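Comment thread on ticket #2218

A.B. wrote:
> Attaching the input chain for the structure job we discussed in standup.
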Amino acid sequence: MILQEYESARGMLAGLAYRMLGSWHDTEDVLQEAYVRWSAADRSDVAEPRRYLTRVVTRLSVDVLRARQSRRESYIGEWLPEPVPANALDLEEVSMALLHVMERLTPPQRAVYVLRTAFTLPYDEIAEILDRTPDDCRQLHRRATHALADDRPRYEPTVDEQRRLLLDFVAAARDGDLPRLESMLRDDVISWTDANGRRRAARKPVTGREKVATFFAHIYGRPDVTITPVDLITGPGLMVVVRGNHHLLTVDSDGTAITAIRVVANPEKLSAV
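C.D. wrote:
> Ran it. Output below, let me know if you need it in another format.
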């Protein structure tokens, strides 16, 4: 019965934790700890196991986010969400772009935003989960929404559009075709690379059409570059192998051009893929 009740809620709990953490490794750690606590809990007073487990996973995720903030100072370069294969989790309406911009939120803001926006929980229930007042939670949600307003994606390309953009972009970069590359990019395009010092990579964002085009033509402009399409829970990605090093590439689009590029090159974040 203990395992059955937990397993019936595990998919939802995994989606909650991953939305909050943007890391599959952290998500698995949180789920394991949640099960340990559920197994040891006095369940005679638990009327709704799903609500109880939601509270445990949310609070554990907040703790992980706070601990990660203190460790972030030692992280080398940009931190990007960890890509996860599509078959690992049944998760809808989440994008790599949104997970990335949510990094600017405080742990309580992120918790309230996910619980309210993704799971449509009432503020009274969110307040109980976070041990705050409903008014506090409303304020946290307003602040989170305001913080994300300028950079939250306003256009979501279709799966086919994303795949085509990824393949065309890397093909142009491999050919060293700068005019073609630039034609695919918006003027204010930005590129982030997450390698944590484990691979040679740009430690700061590369911005602007010409700089981004030149940057990728330099990296991928080799005949031995190989590519493999990958389906992620956040949408299509492309695994690019350059000189034996693996990069997981994703892009955002405004419908006419690429607006953002994210490259995960940290091998620790690619083990799931």
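A.B. wrote:
> Thanks. Noting for the ticket: The chain has a mean pLDDT of 90.
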